[in-house]
Amino acid sequence: MPTARIPTVEAQAVSVLDLRPVAATLGILLAILGGSMLIPAAMDFATHSGGQSAFVGASAITVFVGVLLWMSGRSSDSRKLDLRQAFLLTTSVWVVLTVFAALPFMWGSARLSVADAIFESMSGLTTTGASVMSGLENQAPGILLWRAMLHWFGGIGIIAIAIAVLPVLSIGGMQLFRTESSDKSEKLMPRAGTIAKGLLAAYVLLTVACAVAYALAGLGTFDSITLAMSTLSSGGFANSDSSMSAFASPAVDYVAIVFMLVAALPFPLYVRALTGDPVRLFTNPEVRLFLFIVALFTVASFIQQTLQGVASGETAFRGALFTVSSLISTTGFMSVDYTNWGTASNALFFVLMFFGGCTGSTSGGIKALRVAITSKALRQHLRRVTFPHGVFPLRYGGVPVADDVVASVLGFVFLYLSTFVVVAVILNLMGLDLLTAYSATIACLSNVGPGLGPVVGPASNYAALPDPAIWLLTLAMMLGRLEIITTLVLLLPRFWVR
């Protein structure tokens, strides 16, 4: 009788991660990023601002490195990215592009330090909107345009990752989003390439519509274009230190409100609308939950302002709706300093920063889908405790949700909150007060931008923070944007050698 052979460690097959496809893809993206730097260079040249040399130099270096990476990674026998390569590429894109996108901030008129430039660049690409720059009104137009372009590039990249990458990696219950998006009865379009074109078309059309709306509201061409890119990406970079309050225009506020909410809804539904099925946009359960949360917090904020004598009537309603829309969409625009509305409002808005928009949008945060699944899982658990022999399937949108999806969502929420606590405690140990530490953490982790209080609140920025805090919050922005697990999995030794 033959005996079974137990393979030794030496006999086991070891699969070393092939970096060539990752390098080739990074090279292409870097070349595109470098080429786009010539646009703000042309703006500075046309306006005689003198900042074009920094962009031209940064463009040359970025394109050169991109071509080298592409040449070193291209291979005739290269195949599609496998799971490990997808994990690595997802994080590498944001890290590498952030470094090279920071060059104009260091070499241009802004003259930022390395830490501040990386922070500003990461804030732009992750569409966080937190800034260390002051005196924006006096900055060269090329720098302001570059900040808006980083938001716009980051926004379309975020949509692509949420739809194409995260569902495949089954992170935070995103496999449920994949199921909904690819079901035969709700298929967006027949091919992935067509879907990508549809998403890009929707993104561009909505950006153009937003720019036109801003122009009709009275803004100039430059402000209309840059603010439209910041709004549709849920970014929040503005061209003034006082953000949207610089215009003091109700019409501009309402345009921003509409398109901030538009950016927080699932973009695949806009593709469906373009193909003749707009009904899904209003019947989607996640959209309904998101709009309900917006309405609930707007009413609460309106009542608080009225009772405390801060404002009343249309002014209070507009201020409440603008602030709620800005925070829940994680855009971070400011039309009024809401930190002056009292401690109750601060507590309300602090909670709101955790929520975020919908899956498949440009928003950050936990997302309405996960909020719904978590609340349903809690209700299911309470019912099982009350009725041990009962059967209570968890449903979302009328469809049963598998246990592994629920576990994935709950695991993500736990990891999200744990990351928040760890970063906030470290910032507090660095000497930051509790309000600054905790609000800055959630503002960066949820990609909102401004925090609460006099240090990092909407009337200030992050320039007063020490460099160690700046580096930590830069990491928090990336972790929040890449859904945390995507980055943390790279720390596992077995990830690199399987």
Q: In DSSP terms, counting alpha (H) and pi (I) runs of 4 or more, how many helices?
A: 23
What is the molecular shape?
globular
Order of helices and strands: HHHHHHHHHHHHHHHHHEEHHHHHH
Question: What's the mean pLDDT score?
Answer: 88
- State the major sheet: 2 strands, antiparallel
Helix content: 55-70%
What count of structural domains?
2
Q: Helix/strand/pairing class, anyone?
A: mainly alpha
Number of strands: 2
Poorly predicted parts:
1-13, 179-190
Radius of gyration: 23 Å
Strand content: under 5%
- Major sheet: arrangement of strands: 1-2
Description:
The protein has 2 domains: 15-111, no CATH class; 141-415, no CATH class. It has 23 helices and 2 strands. It has helices spanning 20-36, 38-46, 52-73, 83-101, 103-107, 114-125, 141-169, 174-182, 192-216, 221-232, 250-263, 267-274, 280-283, 285-308, 313-328, 343-355, 368-386, 403-429, 434-445, 453-456, 467-481, 485-488, 493-496; strands spanning 395-396, 399-400. A two-stranded antiparallel ribbon has the order 1-2. It is globular and about 70 Å long. The two termini are 33 Å apart. The model is unreliable at 1-13 and 179-190 (pLDDT under 50).
